[in-house]
Write a structure and sequence with these properties.
- The structure holds two protein chains of two kinds.
- Chain A is mainly α.
- Chain A has one domain: MetI-like fold, CATH 1.10.3720.
- In chain A, 77% of the residues lie in helices and 0% in strands.
- Chain A is built from ten helices and no strands.
- The longest helix of chain A is centred in the C-terminal third of the chain and has 33 residues.
- Chain B has a single domain, classed as MetI-like fold, CATH 1.10.3720.
- In chain B, 80% of the residues lie in helices and 0% in strands.
- Chain B is mainly alpha-helical.
- The termini of chain B are far apart.
- Chain B contains nine helices and no strands.
- The chains are: A mainly alpha, B mainly alpha.
- The interface between A and B is large, with 51 and 52 residues.
- Chain A: This is Polar amino acid transport system permease protein.
Chain lengths: 239, 220
């Protein structure tokens, strides 16, 4: 049963780079959008708030599969502009998870104690200075654990790119291996799942480091240590 | 570019989307029920007296949560027939969704159970209630209402993930839209209508769950 193990691992690994690219690309776009939309939802201007809210609700309210198919099949017809599958995938991952992330940013900024705002006013800091020097550094530390979960969700979401024929890990298993080795389904898929597990552990380790750094910068102790896997797997608290 | 939205065509796809909607709702309802029940089983097994049981359940839950639902669906879809279990694609999908989300709801139940004050356990002991009665008459009736909003959130998440089932040939809303689109080579209307239908259903559900949270919720 394990005769083909090397072949399987190397074939799946061919998709690894694409999965990593899609995930990283998605993470970068999602992070930028989260901060922009999250802060926009707290803006004093009604128009800005409504625009940000609309983005968040539309991208959270429709399914990722719909978004993917829409960008891949509908957008080219409407605009005459066809995205490369990988870029279509990264765009959808970024926009979709950015909408969830925006709520995390908003929540974390709102959770900074009221007194901190009052302190800023007392010191007559400008609104920009207040955000940059006082509020965001504190909110940032609180955002890291939920963003860890979000990024793992995003990694798992990247498997969907199979549908629009991006040859990432899942595609390699399903379209390349499964067709030729129909009798070894279990081994093939268990290997794929282990690849994803390894990647989500990498994300968690990275976010852990960031969390310690952010806490240390604020002169706080890092958040209580939890069992390793308790972090790795934390699922979608998102809805 | 001379493309325009065709209302006649858009209306004509609605019946197919409606049929797909029924499938989506079925998958979500049965998937959630399975997730609610299995999640509770996992949560209780994680408090088992036997460390081996606790460890196995813990490893299983963490493994399933860290890996994509899509791959798990493929796994079930291709492996179950191999070991002689022949289920319809929809049923396979329900099992996949239910099992995947059970690993999330297990954590929700855990938080709910741990939120029941210690004094309640002590009182049950003082009354010498047997273990089973302690759970059914004291702990769970207090733990479960508080976790309902969190469970509701997972039902909405699941609703948004049911279109994954189209990869194992279940014709949900999106599957139906895709099929109509491929047979007429017009994707714009069916896929857009499917998206709007989704939004119309999921946004009010989120509002409802947020209301539940304000009413009964615990911080999750």
């Amino acid at each position: 049963m394990f005769d083909n193990l090397t072949l399987f691992v190397s074939t799946i690994a061919k998709g690894l780079l694409l999965t990593v690219e899609a995930t990283l690309g998605g993470i970068v776009i999602a992070t930028v959008l989260s901060v922009v939309a999250g802060l926009a939802m707290l803006s004093p201007s009604v128009v800005v708030r409504v625009v940000a809210r609309t983005y968040v609700e539309i991208w959270r309210g429709t399914s990722e599969v719909v978004q993917l198919l829409w960008i891949y099949f509908v957008l080219p017809i409407l605009t005459g502009f066809q995205l490369v599958p990988l870029w279509a995938g990264i765009t959808v991952l970024g926009l979709n998870f950015g909408a969830y992330g925006a709520e995390i940013v908003r929540g974390a900024v709102q959770a900074v104690p009221r007194e901190q705002y009052e302190g800023c006013v007392a010191l007559s800091l400008s609104p920009a200075q207040r955000m940059r020097r006082v509020i965001l550094p504190q909110a940032f530390a609180d955002m890291i654990p939920p963003f860890n979960n979000l990024f793992i969700q995003l990694l798992k979401g990247s498997a969907l790119l199979t549908i629009i024929t991006v040859p990432e890990i899942t595609y390699q298993a399903r379209e390349v291996l499964l067709i030729r080795h129909t009798d070894q389904t279990v081994l093939i898929f268990v290997l794929v799942l282990l690849f994803y597990l390894a990647l989500s552990i990498v994300i968690t380790v990275g976010m852990r480091l960031l969390e310690r750094k952010a806490a240390a910068r604020l002169g706080r102790r890092p958040a209580e240590r939890t069992a390793f896997f308790a972090k790795v797997g934390q699922g979608s608290g998102v809805a | 570019m001379n493309w325009s939205w065709d209302w006649n065509y858009a209306w004509s796809v609605l019946p197919s989307l409606g049929e797909g909607l029924v499938v989506t709702v079925e998958a979500t309802v049965f998937g959630s029920l399975l997730a609610y029940v299995l999640g509770l089983v996992f949560a209780l097994l994680r408090r088992s007296r036997f460390w081996l049981v606790r460890t196995i359940v813990w490893l299983f839950v963490e493994f399933v949560r860290s890996t994509p639902l899509l791959v798990q669906l493929f796994f079930l879809f291709f492996v179950l027939p191999d070991i002689g279990i022949r289920l319809s694609p929809l049923l396979t999908g329900v099992i996949g969704l239910g099992l995947h989300y059970a690993t999330y709801t297990a954590e929700v139940y855990r938080a709910g159970i741990e939120g029941v004050p210690k004094g309640q356990w002590e009182a049950a002991r003082a009354l010498s209630l047997p273990r089973g009665r302690t759970w059914t008459a004291v702990i769970l009736p207090q733990a479960i209402p508080r976790v309902l909003p969190a469970l509701g959130n997972y039902t909405i998440s699941m609703f948004k993930e049911t279109p994954l089932l189209l990869t194992i040939s279940v014709l949900d809303i999106v599957g139906a839209a895709y099929e109509v689109g491929s047979s007429s080579f017009r994707f714009v209307e069916p896929l857009t209508m499917a998206g709007i239908l989704f939004l119309l259903l999921s946004y009010p559900s989120s509002l409802f769950v947020r209301w539940l949270e304000r009413r009964f919720g615990i911080a999750h």
